TrEMBL record:
Gene Ontology MF annotations: protein-disulfide reductase activity
Residues annotated as signal peptide: none
Protein name: Thioredoxin domain-containing protein
Positions of the Thioredoxin domain: 1-91
PROSITE patterns linked: THIOREDOXIN_1, THIOREDOXIN_2
Disulfide bonds: C16-C19
Catalytic residues (positions): C16 (nucleophile), C19 (nucleophile)
CDD domains: TRX_family (cd02947)
Annotated organism of origin: Edaphochlamys debaryana
Site positions for Deprotonates C-terminal active site Cys: D10
InterPro entries: Thioredoxin, Thioredoxin-like_sf, Thioredoxin_CS, Thioredoxin_domain
Length: 93
C-alpha cells in the first residue's frame, strides 16, 4: 500500500561535508531498498522558513514518515543509525 511506504527525508546543505559523504551511501541504499522512498531537501535560503518550521538545526537531519506522520528523526552522518531506524519503521512484508 503506497500510503504505508516509509519516506526518509534528508535535510542537507550544499556546504555540509558530512552531507556530501552520506550522499553516495544514500543513493546506493535507495537502489537497494525500493520499499522505502528517499527525498532530499536543501535547507538553503529558499527553504530556510520550512527548515525552521521543521526545527532543522543541524545538517544532515533525517525525518522518517509513514502515512504522513513523522515516526522518527535523527541528526548526523550515521548510516548505521539511519539503517536501524529504517528497519524499525519499514512496513512489514
Amino acid at each position: 500500500m503506497q500510503g504505508d511506504t516509509l519516506v526518509v527525508v534528508d535535510f542537507y546543505t550544499d556546504w555540509c561535508g558530512p552531507c556530501k559523504l552520506m550522499y553516495p551511501q544514500l543513493v546506493a541504499l535507495s537502489q537497494e531498498r525500493t520499499d522505502v522512498r528517499f527525498v532530499k531537501l536543501n535547507c538553503n535560503k529558499t527553504n530556510k522558513e520550512l527548515g525552521m518550521q521543521l526545527q532543522i538545526r543541524v545538517a544532515p537531519t533525517f525525518h522518517l514518515y509513514r502515512n504522513g506522520v513523522k515516526v522518527a528523526d535523527m541528526t548526523g552522518a550515521k548510516m548505521d543509525k539511519l539503517l536501524d531506524l529504517i528497519n524499525t519503521h519499514s512496513p512489514k512484508k
